[in-house]
Structures are given as C-alpha cells and as structure tokens.
Design goal:
Helix 4 (about 100-120) crosses helix 16 (about 340-350). A five-stranded mixed β-sheet has the order 5-6-1-7-8. Strands 3-2-4 form a three-stranded mixed β-sheet. The radius of gyration is 24 Å and the shape is globular. The chain contains 17 helices and eight strands. The chain is an alpha/beta fold. It binds 2'-deoxycytidine-5'-triphosphate and magnesium ion.
Length: about 400
C-alpha cells in the first residue's frame, strides 16, 4: 500500500473511494504572502466589512492599518493568535489527510440520519423579525447634535471607536478600530465621546415599541432585538414584511432613529436578513423551503452569527468551505473532523435551521459589564483594579 500523501493529491473532498485510499484532497499549505505586500497577511477584527463598507478601498485600508499597527503590542498579540490558529489549521489538515474513504463511508449513515432529523424538525410556521438600529451610538449623537449630520463621525476616542456613521464607513472606519488609525483613514473624522446613559435611554424607547409587538422579545444588545410576530400576522392577517415596516416606522416616530429589519422563519435567518438592506431597509425571506435553501446555499459562512474569523479560516483553509451550501457538501468530512456540537451547528447552518421556537422563560445565566482602560504600562494599576473588583 502506498503512503497516503502520494495518493491524496488525486482525491477530492466528497468522493468515497477504495477502502485503503485517503478520501480527501489534502490541500497544500498555501504559499505565504509575498513580503512586498506584508499587509495581506495581517488580519484583525476591524478589517472585516460591516454594512456600508462595500465600496471601500480594501487594499488601502489594509495597508494603512498594517503600517500603523506593526510593532505595537496589539499587533504582536494578533500575530501570536494568528500562529495559534495556523497550528490548529495544520493539525486539522493532518487529521483530514489521514481520513480514508472507508472511514468516511462509515460515517454516512449517522450523518444522513442526523441531517434527516434536523430536516424533519424544520419549522416554517413562525415569523421572526430581527431589528437592528443603524449606526446606533452615532445616530443618537447626531440626533442630539444635528450639526453632525452628513459628516463623517465616530463615537469613541483615539484609542478605540465604538461605532462610526455611514459617511465614515466609506473610508474603512468602523467599530473596534483604534481612533488614531481611523483618523489616518479619514482626516476629517469627528470624534464624539460616548455617553452610555443616553444610549440606554434611547434603547429603552425602542424596547417600548418592541414590547407592543412581542412582549417576550429577545434583546441581544442595546440596539437589536428578535421578535416573534407569528400571532400578530395571523390575528391581523398581515405579512411579516408589513409588521417590520410598522415597527421601523414606530421606532422612528419615537426616537427619530432609523433601524433595519430582517424577516424570516427563524432567528438565524432574520438576523442575516436584517443586515442586507442596511441602513434604513429591510429584507424578507419567505417561509418556503426552496427559497430558503437557495438563499442559504450561496450565503458566505461569515455572515452567520456564530461563525467568526477563526471558524471561517479553519473551514476555508482545511476544507475549502466558503458558503453555507459548502457545509452540507462537505458533511462527512465535517463529521469526521469536528465535535458533535460543532457538527450539528454547521449542519443546521447549512440547512438554515436555527431558533424558531418561542423563547423560554429561562433564568438569566450571566450578567456582564465591560470597561476599556486608557493605555498604561503600570502593572500596579491593574493589580489594584483587580483587587477592587474581586472584593466587590
Ligand atoms: N458597539 C461597541 N463596540 C463594538 C461594536 C458595537 O461599543 N465593537 C456598540 C456601538 C454600536 C452598538 O454597539 O452603535 C450597536 O452595534 P452594531 O454592531 O449594531 O453597530 P451599529 O448599530 O453602530 O451599526 P449598524 O448600522 O451596522 O448596525
Ligand atoms: Mg446596529
């Protein structure tokens, strides 16, 4: 029998082959990025496009971010994290190369049964809406100071930005980006200090509207909520799209803030849809299996809540997966490589199934509070803070 590596090159992802062959095309390690463009190999959270950033000159932004970050502690830490991810990818690749056709074939029954079960539990009877305010903190600030209207602005300071309005996003400026980089990208950028009390007040106003449509709405953060509007649609014989229009209208009347909405049979889809026509728009997915499958098949995995930068990298670099449709195409390999929990999540995403049941009255599991400190090298400062927080 030949060693696996000499045969693997002729195999492709899904194919089931002779028992003693590797079942998978072991992707060659991608050649490292050329040194003349080192910014291509630097990826960090604030380089990911948010709504309103489609037309951004990505190359320019990447270059500026790289030039202004290199050598910093944050940069070095990102590089360390990147090396850990690379190791995980290498390990998974090695595992993938060892999987034989027989091994894959032995998973078929279990995997197909699992997918059949998920499919059987698909619920197309509910109508969910995900509402998300547009550029929330920035919009609140503009609402209270109209002279900011139409100008690129960000909420935050030189060390960190909480959000940026859509004018600023055209320059690549976005949440989680250090303000000094943002200013380099957009020289006219106006900074406004955050005022969380103000945002809570506006958030509560939006929630008064949400409550009218679903008393048990699920708030994931200050500016977004999931609403089950199934009963309202039935009682008033109106569509989810009409309810979404109404909610957005009422939020605007109450706050003079715009929001966007997504309508779909479950929370996973509603959330994805609310981002499609941002700002001040909505997108509706009908409760029909074929339309849903067409939609999800072409959707890039990164658009799904719960699939972040690292998961995206692993799926792409190990299995060549980039769309949700690819998750189902590669179902046997996924089952061979990932834990049952991850496997079931990936299958559910591939099938566009996720959170259609009404919310349960569960006790709160956690309460969090976060605070960003000014940059400091004073370790005793942190020790003191930790002592105070542990004792309170
Ligand atoms: N926020 C923050 N830090 C982040 C991301 C967000 O402080 N890294 C805050 C500021 C945002 C608010 O949470 O205004 C809501 O986050 P969103 O991701 O919904 O962003 P926006 O509402 O600002 O913009 P969008 O129009 O894309 O929803
Ligand atoms: Mg928002």
């Amino acid at each position: 029998m030949q060693p696996h590596h000499s045969r693997a090159a002729s195999c492709d992802g899904d194919a089931i082959r002779h028992d003693d062959e590797a079942a998978f095309n072991c992707h060659q390690k991608q050649s490292p990025h050329k040194d003349d463009k080192p910014w291509h190999s630097y990826d960090t959270v604030f380089l990911n496009a948010k709504a309103g950033m489609d037309g951004v000159d990505k190359e320019k932004v990447q270059k500026v971010v790289y030039e202004m970050s290199k050598g910093s502690r944050y940069f070095e830490n990102e590089k360390r994290k990147e090396a850990v991810v690379e190791q995980r990818i290498d390990r998974l690749r090695s595992q993938a190369c060892l999987i034989t056709a027989a091994g894959l074939a032995s998973l078929e029954k279990v995997v197909d049964k699992k997918i059949g079960e998920l499919e059987a539990n698909r619920d197309l009877s509910r109508v969910w809406i995900h509402v998300d305010l547009d550029a929330f903190y920035a919009a609140v600030e503009t609402q209270e100071n109209p002279s900011l209207k139409g100008k690129p602005m960000a909420v935050g300071g030189l060390s960190m930005i909480c959000t940026a309005n859509y004018e600023a996003r055209k320059f690549g400026v976005r949440a989680a980006m250090p303000g000094f980089i943002a200013r380099k990208l957009c020289q006219d950028l106006i900074f406004v200090r955050p005022d969380f009390e103000k945002y809570s007040k506006y958030s509560e106003l939006t929630r008064q509207v949400f409550r009218e449509y679903d008393e048990r709405f699920i708030a994931r953060s200050m500016d977004e909520a999931y609403l089950d509007v199934t009963d309202i649609c039935r009682e008033r014989t109106i569509s989810g799209a009409q309810v979404a229009e109404e909610i957005r209208h009422h939020v605007y009347e109450k706050t003079k803030l715009t929001c966007s909405a997504g309508v779909g049979p479950n929370r996973l889809l509603a959330k994805v849809c609310s981002d499609i026509n941002k700002p001040n728009g909505q997108y509706v997915l009908p409760n029909e299996r074929s339309a849903i499958m067409n939609f999800i098949s072409a959707l890039p995995i990164r658009k799904v809540s719960g699939i972040g930068k690292v998961t995206e990298r692993m799926l792409k670099d190990v299995l060549g997966i980039s769309t949700c449709g690819d998750l189902l195409q590669n179902r046997y390999m996924i089952s061979a490589l990932f834990s049952p929990i991850s496997r079931d999540f990936f299958f559910s995403v591939g099938l566009a199934i996720g959170g259609s049941e009404p919310p349960q009255d569960e006790p709160r599991k956690s309460l969090s509070n976060e605070r960003t400190f000014m940059a400091t090298t004073d370790e005793s400062f942190f020790s003191k803070k930790l002592e105070v927080n542990v004792s309170t």
